[in-house]
Amino acid sequence: MARVRLARMVEEYRIEKDPHPVTLTLLGGELISGAMFVQAHARRRTGREDPADILNEPEAFFPFVTDAKETLLIPKSRVLEVAGDIPSRRPAALASGNPVVRISVAVVG
Fold it and tell me: For an engineered disulfide with 49, which of 11, 42, 100, 107 has Cβ 3.0 to 4.6 Å away?
């Protein structure tokens, strides 16, 4: 009886997420293809959540499933680049009134 009740509670508070295909480049140059998990709505802007939203959240890690179906917990501090379709970074999304600042970062060592 307790298991059934616990299962109902877990299902009630479950947040639906969908895989979003990307390729990560990590600090050591390693490339990992797979998917980040996004929600139907972004927390801080209108529209669907995308990888940029996840990387800008305060949590230090995010779950990632590789193309080989291996689930990893990736530390954000190890991610150099996320390649793929990032809707919030398309020119039309950026021209929607959100301020845009271009920066250049040179990493040495």
Answer: 42
